[in-house]
Amino acid sequence: MVKVRAARPAEAEDLTGLVMRSKAHWGYDAAFLAACAPELRIRAGDVTARRVVVAENGRGEVVGVASLEGTPPRAELGLLFVEPSAVGQGVGRLLYRDVLRRAVELGVRRLVIDSDPHATGFYRAMGAVPVAEPAASAASPAAPAAEAGGTALVRFEAAPVPLADWARAWTGGGRAVHLGNVGEFNAQFADATLDREQRPAHHYACLAAFYSPYPAALVLPRPVPRGWTELVCRQLGWTGVEVYDGLLDADPGLAEAVRARPALAALLTGSGLPLVPWGRTRAFGRLAGRPWRDGELRYESKSAAHGLFGRILADGGHPGIVLPRQWRVDGRWAAARMLAARTRAGESTVLKSEHGVGGSGTTVLTPARVRAAGGARAVLRRLPRGPLLVEEYVGGAASRGDEGPRDLTYDGFVDEAGRAHEVGGAVMEVADGCYRGATVGPGVVPGWAEKSLIAFGAAVGRELADSGYRGWFDVDFVADGTGRLAPTETNLRLTGPSIAFMVAARLDALRGAGHLVRISDRVELGARLPEAQLDELCAALARGCAELGAVFVPAIPTGAFEPAPWLGVLVAARGREVLDAAEALVRAEALAVGAMFGPT
To answer: Whose C-alpha in 32, 105, 160, 459 is 20 to 30 A from the C-alpha of 350?
Structure first.
């Protein structure tokens, strides 16, 4: 186990030797090394002045050295060298992340790195951004992989930032125990649109890895590949994450499965760490020792949420928000009559179940689709049983003359003291009413929508807090053709966008500010793979994205073992072009895995 500690003045000569060996490893000739030697020398007095730290392995051997130099708010990465025998073992990554952490503590907001061209791949993979500003000479101490004879250096910068305020409020800024009780949450609504055995929900329980920016333990209903957790920990800089998986066979009650194991329940609840579920349930309340409040989740109902939206809008103050009309019909034939009347009038309609996940139970029907299905009654016969809501369809954004987003969401949470916190807005990918993914980050929500979205989402948060709800929530919106947003539902649980927010907060703290993060729920695989080959694919995708300057994190691995295999993934980058390129790479490579087996 490699750890970082402060260097000692008495080590200065030995550290100089490490630096010179590291420099020579990259092919420098003797003359160039001699020319660099004065600049590369570490003196006893430099150790404190230059904030020098070392990486030490489990045998007490120093295998790397780094320094953080300058005065806030601007500082430089002065040294970053690794013992040649330790190259490729993650020592450089550990030292670089330590430099960023210390920079945040010092108040540094601009970290400058002068890199040799051979080191640019490393710094790009670490999240540093190349800039046009001229760099120093090729003999700079911050160039661990300079080409022999010297070449022009490439200047990079990073923007060290602390963990986001909302993330500190969510778990107190520390680690947490994550309970993947997705199936348990869904099952409490007895929704006819959801799989009785909650098989999809148990796949989505893998998202428990990301319920906060830095977990201490994951509690999962199904077994997960060990290679997956190792890669996720490496990509997000986590250590010491405990995994308790395979706790259920078919029943969706994960909290009860934990309570049935008293030693595990005592370990998890007695750790002093927050216990974070996908969503609140009565069983979770018993496990966590938290009183269950009847009616706490009433706004998970789409009709109750619609009524809440109407009450907020009745007070005025939200001119950028429009509420679609909604009717709760008395029986299926009443719904069919209303749908038929709207179809004859040329109006599109949305049919909704009271509850649903990811668009399940929501059907968008144009007049053409109703006619093609054989009429309103034929449409109703094909839908799941249960109460239905008929809702006015909100027209798209085409009349704005742009290609702007159609589906947006606001995320926030109510803490245990009843304070509502804003997390932010995201753009969702929705196809035919079904959620497919989301993107979060700076500038994602367009300017015309941001103010209205934030203000209305905050108003919903206050109402939820007053109603007694505690936990994460979101408000989903559809953009109409006039630059307004129509709220469509609330989700009183964690969601796909919330996962992207957690990962963005972690990457910003780990690599510097400004990450865009996209979660894609379903990336099709070209073939089912054995676990070892899935690990190889994910490792290759991580390397390929790093070469682009992006980060790849597999989010849902267990779908890869389904008859029609798929992966849930996260990709992150600092620019939209790189983000799109990374997603395209992941999708293409995942689909291409079937080619290795030849023609079917």
So the answer is: 459
pLDDT at 33: 87
Enumerate residue ranges in the chain where pLDDT < 50.
138-149, 398-400, 600
User: What do you get for the CA distance between the two ends of the chain, in Å?
Assistant: 46
The 10s digit of each residue's pLDDT in 556-594 is 999 999 999 999 999 999 999 999 999 999 999 999 987
Buried b (16+ CB within 10 A) or exposed e, 346-369: eebbbbbbbbbbbbbbbbbbebee
| 267: CB partners within 8 A, 6+ apart | none
Cα–Cα separations (whole angstroms), residue 382 to 332, 340, 366, 378, 385: 11, 15, 16, 7, 9
Q: Do residues 464 and 473 make contact, with C-beta atoms less than 8 angstroms apart?
A: yes
65 SS3 class: strand
What pLDDT sits at residue 89? 92
Structure tokens at 350: 């949305």
Q: Are strands 471-479 and 434-440 parallel, antiparallel or unpaired?
A: unpaired
Angle at 500 between CA 323 and CA 216, to 5 degrees: 130
Q: What whole-number distance in Å separates Cα of residue 598 and Cα of residue 109? A: 52
HEC readout, 146-193: CCCCCCCCEEEEECCCCCCHHHHHHHCCCCEEEECCHHHHHHCCCCCC
Tell me whether residue 85 is exposed, middle or buried, using C-beta atoms within 10 angstroms of its C-beta: 0 to 12, 13 to 18, 19 or more: exposed
Relative to beta strand 74-82, strand 110-115 is parallel
Mode of pairing for the β-strands spanning 110-115 and 275-277: unpaired
Residue tagged 């066979």 (tokens): 249
Largest CA distance in the chain: 90
pLDDT of residue 137: 53
Q: How many other CB atoms are found less than 10 A from the CB of residue 157?
A: 16
Q: Read out DSSP for 364-430?
A: EE-HHHHHHTTSHHHHHHTSPSS-EEEEEPPP-SGGGTS---SEEEEEEEE-TTS-EEEEEEEEEEE
- 86-96 per-residue burial string, b: 16 or more CB within 10 A, e: under 16: bbebebbebbb
Q: What is the pTM of this model?
A: 0.92
Question: What H or E segment, with its residue span, contains residue 522?
Answer: strand 516-524
| pLDDT attached to residue 398 | 47
Residue 59 burial class via C-beta count within 10 angstroms: exposed 0-12, middle 13-18, buried 19 and up: exposed
Helices (H), 484-575: 496-511, 531-548
Amino acid in the structure at residue 306: H
Query: What is the C-alpha to C-alpha distance for residues 313 and 319, in angstroms, rounded to an integer?
Result: 9
CA 408 to CA 427: how far, in whole Å? 4
